[in-house]
Amino acid sequence: MDNIEIEEYIQNLNSEAPQYLQDYAISQLINLEGSKLHLLLQPISKNYWRNAAIVLKKIGYPRVKSIIPELLEWIQDMNWPGAQEIVDLLITVDDEVVPYVKKVLKSRDGIWIIWLLSEVVSKWNKDLKKQIKDDLYKLSVTLDNNLIIEGVDIQSMKLLYESKFIYKPEVLNIIKRKTELYEELVENLDEFRESIKEM
């Protein structure tokens, strides 16, 4: 398949194109060689993304191995077209995905991390989850507001607990420590508010 053909098929991934053109483009693009797969990563505009994701899902793992980091980027927002198809693809990837997931977990991007944990990691088997156990623990005890606001700490604790990597007493201890910290913060804020009133 030459570049002109590829470009034409990608143009026909537009969700507003006639359905028969979309279907034909999908059927042809699943034969795309590995070095050209990057052309299907959120091409042109959002009207093209869902069909591009369908193609990538049909291509499947291990053929998509070279673009795993970019596939993870696609789920930075699960509202993006094609994000669900990319999740369906990512949960079929084996240990190969773990180093890239670890990198995302260190990113401090709370929204991306919560989507990754709730949509992908939650569907992993215990052996895969075990490889990021320490990362999940760090996230569960984090005091980083970017992560706490999105519920990353709670989702991490939940995954650890459900996988039996930590047990009820430890979970309750983490919750207690966090509660005490936030109670202290609220007390300090209340004191400050009162001092302002007196000024």
From TrEMBL:
Residues 56-154 form the DUF5071 domain. It comes from the Bacteria. This is DUF5071 domain-containing protein.
